[in-house]
Design goal:
heterodimer, A: alpha+beta, five-stranded antiparallel sheet, 17 strands, elongated, disordered C terminus, B: 163 residues, alpha+beta, five-stranded mixed sheet, 10 strands, 19% helix, globular
């Protein structure tokens, strides 16, 4: 590149020198041509000669006229005035019309000369007719004046010419200097070109010398490389060089080979591909090829032939390097065979692997659980139908889903946490139980295999969850029961002990006093014993009921009843027990048919009624109401007793729970719980509305029995 | 044209014939190395004798005026042949005593001895009666001062200078 740039610069400089030379030469020649033109056009001598000739003729004419005036006769016609006038006029005409006219005009004498010409022309006819002495004398004066005038013109022209010559000389001097300058330019550029030429020749000589040295060196190298054959050839494939390496390879001495056609040297060069490569090398294209053949001793061998173009001394030549590569070739063949075996093995293994993969995919597809595989960046690799069908996936996920999107589908399910929302590569293993639908639970598990593939499994665990839930509720019930019995035991120890103590103390008193007892006292004692007995009986009953309920042995035997009759009967019986109570009714006239187990509902009503009386002090007032609303029948029991504190209202149906306002009043805390559970068994519920120290309102509802059932019951 | 042809033919027939004496005014005198004479040592031509040699026209530019004129006259060569003149040069002299040597070689340009220009017969006062004109416009070799000075007007004498 540098050399090229230098060459380029040198060429530009040379061209510039040549241009300077040419321009200088052209300008100098042009200047010289200018001078030549000038010299040609300015014929000053001719001008002066013409004028002086005319002047001479005018003088001759004047002399002839003088002789005429003197009366001389002219023997020679060429001496006659007419002839001389004609000559003079012709001379004047030449002066006026030729280039002399312009010169005369420049000295300002043209007009007067023209006048003289006219006067002479007018004189011509006078002379033709014959002239008298006087006229001749006058004409002579004119002719003489013309001669004088012409003499003056000569003087003036001479002076003019001199002036002009002065100016011309200075111009020519300038031209000379200019030409000199350009000649210097010519000399300098020519010298430069000569120097350049000389240098170029020197360089060429040096280059030739270098080339020769290089050639010698390469010959030396080529001839001393014996492990590689080197052959050079020209475009006609004539061998130019044959090194000892070739001799070893092909058993041919250099003196036998050089100058021969390559094809004739060895059959290897006659092969089409080899000879083509050799020809291509001479055309400027490199190529490499391998030739498998048998060596002269009959063994298999492989020769590598590298063909390259060579430019030497302006000739397109080719060079070929030949090497025995039999060992490499055999090794390669061996490798190729092994590779082929390996490839077949790989194919077989691949097929087996494919089959295994297909089986696996089939298994995954037929699996009941959802399965998907993602790569470590979260890109979906595979997903079976079940995973697509999974509730949130089918709702939220598109075909192009990645693991993050997939996990976010589940983020809204119950049991999800922020790990699903924030899941990013690299993903962490996780396992979550999620409620994907109302009664469907799924276990979502994310596991990593080999640190690259991520497997996601969605398993339906609804059944398991149900069982777990059932187990949990059973366990809870068990716990509840245990605690209930613990409470029960503590309650019983208190509630049962009181009547038992009454029984014992009354029996002791009767025993101690014996016959001293009065009748009244005895009656009182016995009455006390009886009351305690009744109370115990009731306690036992309620405990039994609760036990039955817990054991699930209470059977509901529904039938059609008139709720009004049912309530009225119960109230009649209650009046007998609690005569102090004021029980009021608000019931419809028509029967209210309900579908229930009469025995159990009686328990409920008795419980509510006895509670109302029990917690209403000395003068209890109870109001019982029955009504229907649509397909439900309602019954309410209202009192104006001690009421229940607002914060305790939700708890009063808990077993063994007793409101703090109820302290001091006997009770087990079983009754309301029992009643509520009976109502639940009927598909109804006891509602409570209560205000402390203001009273309570308990309402329960039952389904109305339809006509068919009524008839059936009847 | 037919007259011209006739004159041309008769000119050839004259070549060896002796020259008759001039009857009219002599317009041209040829002297020097000549074979035919009609006066002592010279050949004299009157206008009629010149016309008999065959006329020719030539258009040429006169260098003094720079104008082209159609000249009509006798070829110089015809006159020299008629008198059997042979030499190295022809000394042409004029009425105004101008004189110049025309090399024999110039005959190859076939100069004309004009007697009229643009149909006007040449008189002494306008460069007549004879005027040597060269075909200046046809040959560039003729366009220089030396040849221009050979345009001898008011010609009246020719002298053949022997080699």
């Amino acid at each position: 590149m540098k050399i090229k740039l230098r060459n380029y610069k040198a060429a530009v400089v040379t061209l510039a020198a040549i241009a300077v030379l040419a321009i200088s030469l052209a300008f100098t020649v042009w200047r010289l041509l200018n001078v030549e033109q000038d010299l040609r056009t300015e014929d000053t001598h001719t001008n002066l000669w013409q004028i002086s000739q005319t002047q001479f003729e005018a003088s001759i004419f004047a002399e002839v006229l003088a002789r005429t005036a003197a009366g001389e006769a002219f023997a020679d016609p060429e001496q006659a005035p007419t002839f001389r006038l004609a000559i003079l006029i012709s001379r004047l005409a030449v002066l006026l019309e030729g280039p002399q006219g312009k010169v005369i005009d420049r000295v300002g004498e043209l007009e007067s000369l023209k006048e003289a010409y006219l006067r002479l022309t007018h004189a011509e006819p006078l002379l033709e007719k014959g002239i008298d002495t006087r006229t001749a004398t006058m004409l002579r004066v004119q002719a003489r004046d013309l001669a004088y005038q012409l003499r003056d013109i000569t003087n003036k022209v001479t002076l003019l010419v001199r002036e002009e010559a002065m100016a011309k000389r200075s111009t020519y001097l300038r031209y000379v200097f200019e030409s000199f300058a350009f000649i210097i330019g010519i000399a300098v550029s020519a010298a430069f070109l000569l120097v350049r030429l000389f240098k170029g020749m020197q360089e060429t000589t040096q280059a030739k010398q270098l080339l020769k040295q290089e050639q010698e060196l390469s010959d030396l190298v080529i001839n001393n490389i014996s492990d590689q054959g080197i052959v050079m050839f020209d475009a006609h494939l004539r061998c130019l060089l044959w090194n000892p390496g070739m001799e070893d390879l092909l058993n041919l001495k250099p003196d036998q080979a050089v100058g021969q056609h390559m094809q004739d040297l060895d059959p290897i060069f006659a092969r089409e591909d080899v000879s083509n490569s050799l020809i291509r090398a001479t055309e400027g294209m490199s190529s490499i090829l391998e030739n498998e053949a048998s060596s002269p001793d009959g063994q298999e061998r492989c020769l590598e032939i590298n063909c390259f173009p060579v430019y030497m001394a302006e000739r397109k030549l080719g060079i070929a390097f030949m090497r025995d590569v039999t060992e490499q070739w055999l090794a390669r063949k061996q490798t190729e065979r092994q590779n082929f075996d390996l490839e077949i093995k790989v194919l077989q293994r691949t097929a087996a692997l494919r089959q295994a993969e297909r089986r696996l995919i089939a298994a995954i597809k037929s699996a009941s659980e959802g399965f998907a595989a993602f790569d470590w960046t979260g890109k979906l690799l595979f997903a079976n139908e079940q995973i697509w069908a999974a509730a949130p996936v089918s709702l939220w996920c598109q075909d192009e889903m990645d693991l993050s999107g997939f996990l976010r589908c589940f983020a809204m399910c119950e049991g999800a946490d922020m790990r699903l929302v924030n899941a990013q590569s690299p993903f962490e293993e996780l396992e979550l139980d999620l409620r994907v639908k109302k009664d469907t639970w799924a276990r979502l598990s994310l596991t990593k295999a080999d640190g690259a593939t991520i497997f996601v499994r969605v398993t339906d665990i609804s059944g398991y969850k149900q069982v777990a839930k059932a187990l949990e509720s059973a366990l809870n019930r068990e716990r509840e029961t245990t605690s209930a019995y613990r409470n029960f035991v503590s309650m019983v120890s208190h509630q049962f002990r009181t009547p038992l103590a009454i029984l014992d103390s009354s029996a002791q008193r009767i025993l101690r006093r014996g016959a001293d007892l009065t009748q009244d006292e005895l009656v009182t004692r016995i009455q006390k014993i009886r009351n305690a007995g009744t109370r115990l009986t009731r306690l036992v009953e309620s405990v039994l009921n609760a036990a039955k309920l817990d054991a699930g042995t209470i059977e509901v035997n529904p039938a059609s009843y008139n709720l009004v009759d049912l309530v009225m009967d119960i109230c009649e019986r209650q009046r007998e027990v609690s005569s102090q109570a004021d029980i009021r009714f608000d019931v419809p006239d028509i029967p209210v048919r309900v579908f229930c187990d009469g025995m159990l509902i009686e328990q409920v009503v008795v419980n509510l009624l006895s509670n109302a009386i029990k917690y209403s002090g000395d003068r209890p007032v109870v109001e019982i109401k029955v009504w229907m609303d649509g397909s439900r029948a309602f019954c309410s029991v209202r009192d104006w007793g001690i009421g229940i504190p607002a914060d305790e209202v939700p708890k009063i149906f808990d077993r063994f729970y007793r409101a703090r306002t109820a302290s001091g009043i006997a009770g087990t805390g079983i009754g309301l719980n029992f009643a509520q559970r009976i109502m639940h068994l009927h598909g109804g519920e006891i509602q409570v509305e209560s205000y402390e120290a203001a009273g309570s309102l308990f309402t329960f509802d039952l389904p109305v029995a339809n006509a068919d059932q009524t008839q059936q019951a009847a | 044209m037919s007259v011209m042809a006739f004159v041309g033919n008769s000119a050839l027939s004259y070549a060896a014939e002796p020259l008759r004496p001039a009857k009219g005014a002599v317009v041209l005198t040829v002297s020097g190395n000549i074979e035919q004479t009609n006066a002592p040592g010279r050949a004299e031509f009157d206008q009629e004798m010149l016309d008999a040699l065959g006329r020719k026209t030539l258009e040429a530019t006169f260098v003094m005026s720079g104008k082209a004129h159609l000249f009509d006259g006798v070829p110089l060569r015809a006159i020299l042949e008629r008198v059997g003149g042979k030499g190295s040069a022809i000394r042409a002299s004029a009425l105004n005593d101008y004189s110049i040597d025309i090399p024999w070689d110039d005959l190859k340009y076939d100069p004309l001895i004009a007697m009229s220009a643009d149909g006007q017969l040449l008189k002494v006062r306008d460069k007549g009666p004879l005027w040597i004109v060269y075909p200046r416009d046809e040959y560039s070799a003729l366009r220089n001062n030396i040849h221009d000075s050979r345009w001898v007007w008011q010609l009246n004498r020719l002298q053949i200078i022997p080699p």
